[in-house]
Design goal:
This protein has 607 residues and is α/β, with parallel strands linked by helices. Helices cover 62% and strands 10% of the residues.
Length: 607
């Protein structure tokens, strides 16, 4: 359970709360123990099981002396003040220790609450931070639903299974140990007899725990698949409706949901088996203990009061033993969740920043790709490379267009520049300095990107345009005007403070894209990356967006991916890509006369 112990490292941030929790748990344990120990002389003397000594022995931490000492005191008080008054005093003392134990238990839980919630908070923060800094290649081979499952369901499992067991971890093992030591002091022979039976119970519990861990891993994986299917359906609801595919997706979801439900049923059945198993073995041991102890009393090997006390304390041990067993099962179940979480936290940050990275970037001459190779697959296989030995020089202030069939490697090429991903071989330089020598935030501060998909947040228009910057409403308005977005924004009920909902779906495609362009304009970048920014728009929206893009492209170095050749005819240079390689490059006029892929694209679009 190494991943469980790794989670416990988060407890270091809560040293004070942990210390107070342990302190009050210790008070609870010893107060509970004393309340049971005092029953031995109380029952023995009041009900005449043994006779109190005539002379009070000198107090000492010895089993027989302690019994005689308290027997004498109880007998003395009973004879001088009456049986009933003695009973009242003993009851009040007993109630005091019960109050002390219960209040200490609450105090321990009180200081546990910030630990339990704080550890989960820190874990959640670390996972979210890790996800935001991992390269795009990490997400290319993983489903979003599975990642969401790890941040929600797996964390919930850890909270329920581990954090809720912290009180058990801090209290019950200590109680079992203290009570066990007490039992050894009372009668080593009886404890030895009990110890002979326990290994069988531990063996069975361990077997079930292994089975639980296996099923938990399968269950968490299946839940991730279930959430991935849900997320996929939510994103494609229009297609599902348009193709009357409701029954198909419903059947697919039902099948996965049934598998998950069956898996979860197995997990619960094995986990819930811990309580009755512990009860059966505990009661079995107690019955045998009473019989064996009774034989010892008959043979006068121990006092009847000792047997009574032993049985009472052993019975009190059953509950913490059950809790420890249940916690063990919970840990086995949570191990699967912890393993999935640490698969994210331990993922290699392939985008690594140097310690002495350059923060002040001066872009004056050119960007150069030098013999660049890239693959989304982790294993070495040159045949699967998305980019192969690619070299390209981009002069400052020039507009470079990237064209080619789908899968040619165009988007990968521009993703390398802001280091969303890193090249497998080769390097990219700005004015002769490798981009890996730059501070990542500084590098990305001189770059803006507008993608085919309008990526907006559930926020106001102002919040979306000003995203990632500290700016005034006036500057946001000016950026909106430059992006041909000011007019439609002003017509909205709350203007720039209108909330656009999830992904901005309350707006049209052209409106969403112009907000994205306004966001790029506000950043005032030196380098602009346009990834098919107009391909999903209608003719009117495309014209408005294209005008906005032309405004932002002036005096900036721009890389444009375009499927519609009409939008890049005026580019300074057009790069034609195929299978990760540059196969043609030149101006529109020159390439249109040259046989090759570009001419094929022209014919296909009837330009």
């Amino acid at each position: 359970m190494k991943n469980i112990f790794r989670i416990f490292k988060y407890l270091r941030s809560f040293k004070r709360e942990c210390a107070l929790n342990i302190f009050f748990n210790l008070i609870y344990v010893f107060a509970s123990l004393f309340s049971f120990i005092m029953v031995i002389p109380f029952v023995s003397v009041l009900f005449g099981i043994i006779k109190a000594p005539k002379v009070c022995p000198e107090f000492a931490f010895d089993k027989d002396i302690l019994i005689d000492y308290f027997s004498y005191q109880i007998n003395y008080y009973s004879q001088n003040y009456g049986f009933f008054q003695c009973l009242i005093v003993l009851s009040l003392v007993y109630l005091f220790f019960i109050f002390l134990s219960t209040s200490s238990r609450y105090a321990a839980m009180y200081f546990l609450a910030p630990i339990r919630n704080g550890v989960i908070r820190d874990l959640r923060n670390d996972i979210y931070h890790k996800i935001t800094i991992l390269p795009l290649s990490f997400f290319a081979i993983r489903q979003k639903g599975d990642l969401i499952s790890r941040m929600s369901s797996d964390l919930s499992d850890i909270e329920i299974s581990i954090m809720s067991s912290l009180q058990t971890i801090a209290k019950d093992p200590v109680m079992v140990i203290v009570f066990l030591i007490t039992l050894i002091i009372i009668s080593p022979k009886l404890v030895l007899f009990v110890a002979i039976i326990l290994p069988l119970a531990l063996f069975i519990i361990r077997k079930i725990g292994k089975s639980l861990n296996r099923n938990s891993q399968k269950g968490q994986k299946q839940l991730g698949q279930l959430l991935a299917t849900t997320e996929e359906a939510l994103g494609a609801i229009r297609i599902i409706d348009a193709f009357n595919a409701e029954d198909i997706v419903k059947r697919k979801f039902n099948e996965q949901n049934n598998i998950f439900t069956k898996q979860l049923t197995k997990i619960y059945r094995r986990r819930d088996l811990s309580i009755p198993l512990t009860e059966i073995f505990s009661i079995l041991v107690m019955v045998i203990l009473v019989l064996f102890g009774g034989m010892m009393v008959i043979k006068q090997e121990i006092h009847p009061s000792v047997l009574i006390g032993f049985v009472l304390i052993f019975a009190r041990m059953i509950s913490p033993l059950q809790s420890v067993t249940t916690s063990y099962y919970n840990f086995k179940k949570a191990e699967a969740a912890a393993k999935r979480i640490y698969e994210i936290l331990d993922s290699e940050e392939k985008i690594i920043e140097k310690k002495d990275a350059i923060k002040n970037i001066s872009f004056n001459k050119e960007i150069e790709y030098k013999n660049v190779y890239f693959s989304y697959l982790e294993e070495e296989n040159d045949e699967k490379d998305v980019l192969k030995n690619l070299s390209l020089t981009i002069k400052k202030g020039k507009t470079i267009a990237l064209v080619g069939f789908s899968g040619a490697g165009k988007s990968t090429l521009i993703d390398l520049l802001p280091r969303f991903i890193d090249a497998k071989k080769g390097e990219i330089t700005i004015d002769g300095i490798s981009i890996k020598d730059f501070n990542i935030n500084s590098l990305r501060s001189i770059i803006s990107i507008v993608t085919q998909e309008s990526i907006l947040f559930n926020d106001t228009i102002y919040g979306n345009i000003a995203f990632g910057t500290k700016t005034t409403i006036k500057e946001v308005e000016n950026a909106a005007k430059a992006a041909n977005a000011y007019e439609f924004i002003s017509s909205l009920p709350n203007g720039f403070y209108t909330n656009i909902g999830d992904r901005g779906l309350s707006l049209s495609g052209g409106e969403r894209q112009r907000i994205c362009i306004a966001r790029a304009i506000l950043k005032n970048p030196q380098i602009l990356l346009l990834d098919e920014a107009t391909s999903a728009l209608d003719t009117i929206s495309e014209k408005l967006v294209q005008n906005a893009l032309e405004a932002i492209m002036k005096e900036r170095t721009t890389l444009v991916i375009a499927h519609r050749l009409s939008t890049i005819v005026n580019a300074d240079e057009i790069i034609v890509m195929n299978n990760g390689e540059i196969v043609q490059q030149g101006t529109h006029k020159a390439l249109s006369k040259e046989e090759g892929i570009y001419q094929e694209l022209i014919k296909l679009q009837a330009l």
